[in-house]
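Tokens for chain A. Residues wanted.
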């Protein structure tokens, strides 16, 4: 099981970025994939999660309505479209496999395999 997050960068407030999480060694039907972000001040927090069940997605309160998670099973890739970015979205973003095939937990300690993070910086 391997995951690799990419797509981070620097953007002005109000801008957009799309993160990608390319995975291998499993199918989305086997494990849901969560997005987390981490800063030295806040620690690692759950941002979003996607599973193979269409109605089973998760967004944290802070990103709901601005971020959209999606998947392309043919490319073994999960995306996190981030719009209306704010300075407080600045963090290192990670993707990770959930312990099961549904998004049922937001605790980072429950997630098993982690990819390398990608830095997102929102600043004017």
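Reply:
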């Amino acid at each position: 099981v391997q995951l690799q997050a990419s797509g981070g960068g620097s953007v002005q407030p109000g801008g957009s970025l799309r993160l990608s999480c390319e995975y291998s060694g499993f199918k989305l039907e086997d494990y849901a994939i969560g997005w987390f972000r981490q800063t030295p001040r806040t620690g690692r927090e759950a941002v979003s999660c996607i599973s193979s069940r269409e109605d089973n997605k998760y967004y944290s309160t802070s990103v709901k309505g601005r971020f959209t998670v999606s998947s392309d099973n043919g490319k073994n890739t999960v995306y996190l479209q981030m719009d209306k970015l704010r300075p407080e979205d600045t963090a290192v973003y990670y993707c990770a496999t959930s312990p099961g095939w549904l998004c049922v937990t937001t605790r980072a300690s429950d997630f098993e395999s982690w990819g390398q993070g990608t830095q997102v910086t929102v600043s004017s």
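The first strand starts at residue 2 and ends at 6. The mean pLDDT is 96.
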